[in-house]
User: Fold these one by one.
Assistant:
Number 1:
Amino acid sequence: MSRHLFGLSAADLAMEKVGDEVRLRAGAVGTVWDALVGGTQITDLTDLAGNPITQITADTEAAVGFYGPDGVSTVYADFGYSRRFLMMAVDLGDQIDSLSTNKLDLTGGTMLGPIITSGVPSVSGEAVNKAYVDSEVSSGDAATFTSAQAYTDAQAALKVSKAGDAMTGPLTLPGNPTSPLHAATKQYVDALGGGGSGAVSSVNGQTGVVNLTAANVGALATTARGSANGVASLDAATKVPTNQIPDLTSTYLAFEDSWGNQWGPADQGLKAWSFDPSLAVNVSAPVGGSVYLIRVKLRKATTISKVVMFTVAAGSGLTANQNYAGLYTASGTRVGITANQSSAWTTANNTLSMSLTSAYSAAAGDYYVAFVSNGSTRPGFVCGTELGATRTAGNANLSSGGYRYCIGATGQTSLPSSISIASATPDANAYWVGLA
């Protein structure tokens, strides 16, 4: 609501009746009331400039102008001349005109801003606010939502998915197919089959409804692939996988066991070694932090649980938890590691049978035995040739990535999880190692 303007019209002048005359009273001071007689004086007034006043004063031409209280459109002026004069707000017409642009008709229209409601609705016909709607949606009528979802799911279960589905009843078509991709009716198919039975006359000597087995067409069943009395499959490299090659050692003499009158790994309780240890002629202490790699060959699949080495000279002052041996694949992935050997490597002339923390099921192929040592005096391990630099005879005719004796990494305190075999550098020390 707002204040209404009073006065400033020809009827709003300060006047006094003297005899039969009505005289204008410039500068007259009066009060404003809410009734013609009695009532309560109105003091919540402002002048034309908006300044608060409690009385009204006529100007030099006896004209009176002021603003009344908010929402009041009728007042009575008393200038002390024995009567009060009715004054009507003169701006009502302007406010009525503004209704057409600033108010919404009861019959409806378009709001230019939001409607702010007083609170939560209490009857069904009341408008609701955003907070009420959000609360209802978030807290939810669980039963309503569950019921709606259940209904939707039930209806969906009665329909056939366009992506493909299994029907529970027959599908009746409007007629015979006219396009190659149209579904066909039983009647159409029976007519093509002859006699309405849908069976072919003969397949591989069989008549009626024919079910062919692998034997009927001179083939092996798919279940025979890679199995006994079956056929071997090829891997991605067009090779027969190792696990599909029969173990013939129980029938034929295995190559790796046919050492004749020579000693082999099995004769000394081992599964593989780098060379016959009786050929070892030198001893060499490793460089601290260097990971030494010695290549060995497994001629058949086996389980590796230990790495075997031999100390000639004892180590001392070995750094705790920085001395290890282990096993790597030919591609450089570590597949086994021992516990810390800082104490075990301090004994001279000692065969070291070092258990892996977890046994490894190894396929036939090449592997690298690895070890690393750190401490003030590293142990001296038995080895073959020791000609210095990269001149070990053990690497004769071999190139990068295929060395028998090499160093895969330096500055290490343990055996890394993987090593770049292609980056390994050849080593002059042909260390002896074995696998058990």
Note: The longest strand covers residues 350-362.
Number 2:
Amino acid sequence: MSVLDTNKIDGIGISRDGNKLILLISDHLDWSNEYEHLIQLQNKMNSYIGFIDDQQYKEIYPNKVFSLFCIEVHSMYELTANCLKFINVINKQLADRNISIETIVDKFGKP
């Protein structure tokens, strides 16, 4: 699964304290076509936000109540300045819903 699979959750887990649901986006795309990449990322994030809003996670964790939600974007490549701005805007919009976006650059075996 990857950022291209907008209707699938790439990974899901719970924080150690049990209060936060963590959703993983696996982003293997480079930034050679930044606009298209941002559209793919936006579509994937919108799908995840819908997953949270619709409480679809209750199918996996039926007896859990979460106070926080985090969408972790694991990227194979360093994020562009425009991507970071985009994520900052989204974080501001989602703050009152206790949803945050975090980014992690994973080299996935790259030197």
Note: The chain has one domain: 11-105.
Number 3:
Amino acid sequence: MLGDYEQTMAWLRNLVRTGGYIVIEDGFLADGVAHLPPAEGYVGHSETLRQLTACRDVVVQESICPMEQTRSVNQRNTDLIRQRASLLRASHPAFEQLIDEYVARQERETRTLGTDVLCAIWVLRRT
């Protein structure tokens, strides 16, 4: 992202002709989650939509990923990251601490996604 959604859209829309489409895949805070340090920068659903449309572009489609699907995909990705990290540690022992920190960060983010942050895809038409 290039800042919050409003800043991102203001920049991206300059690259898209009038009537063209912009696709954003990201997320927003689940209901009842006011602020979440691991998900810094995320806002609630209504504020997300307000920021996405601040330049008067139109949301033509919104797809909110089911939590179970998000958890499943993220678990698979985390497993693959762990496997690759194991190979990297073996071939680059000097970077073991960096690799372990990266894996731990990915595991924390995976726990956040699908519970406190809902994943979504938005298709916007530039006006």
Note: Residues 23 and 123 are 5 Å apart (CA to CA).
